[in-house]
Amino acid sequence: MLLEAGAQVDRPDEFGATALMKAATAGEAGTLAQLLAAGADANAAVFTDGGEMGGRCTAAHVAVLRNHIAALNAVLVAPGVDPDMGTTGVGPPCLGACYYGYPDAVALLLAHGADPNIANVEGRTAFMSAAQFGNTASLRALADGAAQQEGRT
Q1: Is 83 helix (H, G, I), strand (E, B) or coil?
Q2: Under a CB-based contact definition with an 8 Å cutoff, are residues 107 and 64 in contact?
Q3: 47 HSE (CA, 13 A, CB side)
Q4: Cystine design at 97: which of 22, 35, 105, 150 (Cβ 3.0–4.6 Å)?
Q5: Average pLDDT of the chain?
Q6: CA 33, CA 120: separation in Å to the nearest integer?
Q7: 3-state percent breakdown (helix, strand, coil) of the chain, nearest 5
Q8: Given this model, what pLDDT does residue 18 score?
Q9: What is the pLDDT of residues 73-114, one digit of tens each?
Q10: How many whole angstroms separate alpha carbon 153 and alpha carbon 147?
């Protein structure tokens, strides 16, 4: 209803969060799809000053953090989305998925072209993060995804 009335789809609130970020936090895949169809920027990143998502993060980061797979997919299918966007601070979403041990998110990100070799500011990659925290399912997802990406090139 607000969109139909001309609401600015990417307008941030007083904390810098957009409706897209809030929908990703809540795992609202349908709302994400509506916002993206209305022109929301899937690559928009907000700066957070600490906590679990310190640095610049996108709706994809937030969906990964909450392990909302349907919401993550809604973001990743948006035209022009960069699955590696927001790589300062915590690094790309794939690294976060490996850190938290969410192999389904890892597989989905890789299927949408995420690069598991991008490092965060500390030099840690998705592989390193999964190994450090013993997330063997994420390591398997990385290996499977790398094999599929290799087959496509």
Answers
A1: coil
A2: no
A3: 1
A4: 105
A5: 86
A6: 28
A7: 50, 5, 45
A8: 87
A9: 999 999 999 999 865 666 899 999 999 999 999 999 999 999
A10: 10
Contact 124, 91 (CB under 8 A): yes
CA neighbor of 111 nearest in space, from 77, 88, 79, 86: 77
Q: Are 57 and 85 in contact (CB under 8 A)?
A: no
> Residues 130, 117: contact at Cβ < 8 Å?
no
Report the alpha-carbon angle 135-136-139, nearest 5. Answer: 95
Q: What angle do CA 106, 64, 66 make, to 5 degrees?
A: 135
Residues 6 or more apart whose Cβ sits within 8 Å of residue 127: 98, 116, 117, 139, 142
The yes-or-no verdict on residue 54 having pLDDT over 70 is no
Taking the CA of residue 39 as centre, how many other CA atoms within 13 Å lie in the half-sphere pointing to its CB? 8
Beta carbons of 32 and 59 less than 8 angstroms apart: yes
d(CA 84, CA 112): 10
